[in-house]
Specification:
mainly alpha; Ribonuclease iii, N-terminal Endonuclease Domain, Chain A; Double Stranded RNA Binding Domain; 2 domains; 3 strands
Length: 256
Amino acid sequence: MKRPNRPKRTRQRASAKAKSRPILSHEQRKELETAIGYRFKDETILTRALTHPSLIDDFGGGATFSNQRLEFLGDRVLGLIMAEVLINKYPKEREGFMTKLFHHLVSGPTCAAVGNQFNLRDYLFMDASMKSNTNRNYDKAVGDAVEALIAAIYNDGGIDAAEKFIKKCWIFDTLTKTATEPEENPKTRLSDWCGANQTGYAVYSTVSQSGPPHAPVFTVQVEVDGRGTATAEGGNKQDAEKAAAAALLEILEKHD
């Protein structure tokens, strides 16, 4: 007796499960490993790091098929290593200063820029629609794959190997520019100082206003109870408060 044909959807699923998942050619793998400075012992984890979730349905894959879980882990590994890099690079800076740099260095656009240095998109496995789909701000698929690659290196070679990759491939030259930019609003820095030293927060008061209407001069005093006061002038109240906060910070930090 002839067996009935299976429904089309069932046949498609069975066909999908029969597919062999994509892998890099020997030449591609050699090129990529040379670019990143790491040779994988387990090729399957490299393949998974390069597999975009858009292929899950085509290949009947599950949670461990694409690079999403590796991306989750890689984000945490990157954060740990980057935090240590900043702690060592800026031993005298406050947490707020380093946080600003940290968020820049681990951001999606930065991860994508890192991947673009060695043309990571050319090695990714993704469906046809994703191959031509790039965000005008940054290539999210590449940024996610860089985080997945970090996790793959971490799983394959340990934390030292992941750290070596990050220090080799990351774009640290942007730190020079960012680190020399003006720091945060002095009022914010003064509030941070008060919080760190468990004092009452700063109180600002306008001492006087002088000058003609088109060119006023505001004199503002700021006080941190029991720790000090400072007075400064500005062309408007806000500028005067910032100048006063900066002056008081200078006094307070000399006595830290």
